[in-house]
What does this fold into?
Amino acid sequence: MQLVRAVLAIASVFAVLATAPSALACGIERWPEKTLQDRRAALIDFTPKPISVQTLRRKRVRRDPEGFRRAPVETTVYRVRARLIGVRGEDDGDVHLVISSVTNRRRTMIVEMPSADCILRASRTARRKMSAARRSFERACGPPSDTFQTLRGTAIIDGVGFFDFIHGQTGHAPNGIELHPVTRFRATSC
It folds into this structure.
């Protein structure tokens, strides 16, 4: 049964990639979950739950064996008040933003904002939230370059909890937690 689910999951990823207009530019690993285009996205509660960066960094990693979205962390929108540490544009079109605890710049985690070209299969509400968050970031901080840029400032950020695999990304949390995607961004300074 697990093998059948795995094959179906892989087939669905290839189906999305084959029909997306900019498929080669968008990501691959758990991309439907990262962009709210997966079958379980309807389970997400978009009412933001206030939490600190430190608390998110301590969340226990719980992954679905087939890679699907897993409750409760990956079905929750969290709201953090954070320091902005740095940003870069990624090859998959994401804005890769490193944030930290407001009390300790070394306690970092990642938040990501996908490109509008890579979220076409998300619900209208999800697309609107993701696109508005990215526009708000770019108005406050400017468009990211493909090299890491240091930022100074603070923001209030809403985003869906996501456990990514640690693979050397700049600013990752010890448990791989991210807010991916960001659904709201409000900079108090940048």
